[in-house]
Amino acid sequence: MQGVVFTGDRGLELMTFPDPTPGPGEVVVEMKASGMCGSDLHQYRRPRNQARNATGLPPNPNPTIVGHEPCGVVAAIGPDVLPAEAKIGQRVMVHHYQGCTQCSHCRSGWQQLCQEVPVKVYGNNAHGGHAKYLLVPANTLVPLRDELSFTAGAAISCGSGTAYGALRRMNTSGRDTIAIFGQGPVGLAATQFAKAMGARVIALDINAQRLARAKEFGADETVDPGSNDPVEAIRGLTHGKYADLTLDTSSNPDARLSAIRSTKVWGTMCFVGEGGDVHIDVSPHLLRRQLTLVASWTFSNIIQAECADFCIDRKIDVDRLFTHRWTLDQAEEAYKLFDRQSDGKGVFLI
After folding, report:
1. Which CATH number does the domain housing residue 279 bear?
2. pLDDT at residue number 250
3. In terms of C-beta distances under 8 Å and separation of at least 24 residues, what long-range contacts does 235-243 make, across chains too?
4. What pLDDT digit, counting tens, does each position of 75-99 carry?
């Protein structure tokens, strides 16, 4: 089979790999859709000799297939896999992490938080979904209901699921006004979900096309921080009270600081975007406003399944997120376009 491999410095190759065979406790998933996620760009842009990427993981020294939003059907099952875990032909998403499986984090569905062994991240330091087949432990599978497309399942497997997980961490409700900084794939999904939760949404981005899409996805107000002071704009839109909740999906230091400064007294601000930093004057921005800061890294496998159910129950059209659909042999063109960060979300159909 062929798989997409990032070679460093915005280079990639379509390399040939053996078709995988499942061992004990493993399954092979035949890919149907594999999403492109904003965090792919950290790997795509990484210098060839850089020791670590933005997630802090050392890169695999061997060629590694990328893509951590995998969705498909179970094609082969190894020994010791229980019928409750996987069946041939079953439609599945993948929770793309593997820890020790036995610690309290792993057993509660948060394998990415495992402190006992180096965590495998499929599509990062272990083979991912931009290929015909993906070999993973059966315990990483999350069933995909028939009501959702494979492309929707791919989005929920990271980008959209990340947005849902963050909103859930902040207990978003219809009482809240939320300001969402960045309207890339994760930010736009957050806009979509926050509206479904009943919140009033203020969407922020410097790209006019992304702001227009945010409006289509239900944003009540849009703000361009490139031509407006975002803090003052949010203050004006909230009668001087600022936002109940703010969410940064951009990783931009200025956006992060603006998100903190535009959160109301007793409000909650959440970091989602990977990498980068932010410099905060603690007393006026945090202490004297009784602010709560939340860091939200993706989701558990339980929340992934909950997100899928939420999309079905609320009739959320996740597929609307995708503006581009590609084949694997178009990977170079796909990532060059995605690297511009001006369009929407892409997915490989396999």
Report:
1. 3.40.50.720
2. 93
3. 235/262, 237/177, 237/202, 238/177, 238/264, 242/267, 243/177, 243/178, 243/179, 243/202, 243/267
4. 999 999 999 999 999 999 999 999 9
Q: Which of 147, 13, 143 is nearest to 72 (CA)?
A: 143
Using alpha carbons, select from 25, 26, 17, 23 the residue that is nearest to residue 66: 17
Kindly tell me if the per-residue pLDDT of 9 is higher than 90.
yes
Report how far residue 109's alpha carbon sits from residue 79's, in angstroms, rounded to the nearest whole number. 23
Q: What share of the chain is helix, strand, coil (3-state, %, to 5)?
A: 30, 25, 45
| Containing structural domain, residue 188 | 163-295
Radius of gyration of the chain from its Cα atoms, rounded to whole angstroms: 20
Q: Which two tokens stand for residue 241?
A: 């009270």
Which pTM value belongs to this model? Answer: 0.95
Q: Are residues 255 and 185 in the same domain?
A: yes
54 pLDDT more than 60: no
Residue type, 133: Y
Q: Residue 306, Cα to own-chain centre: how many angstroms?
A: 15
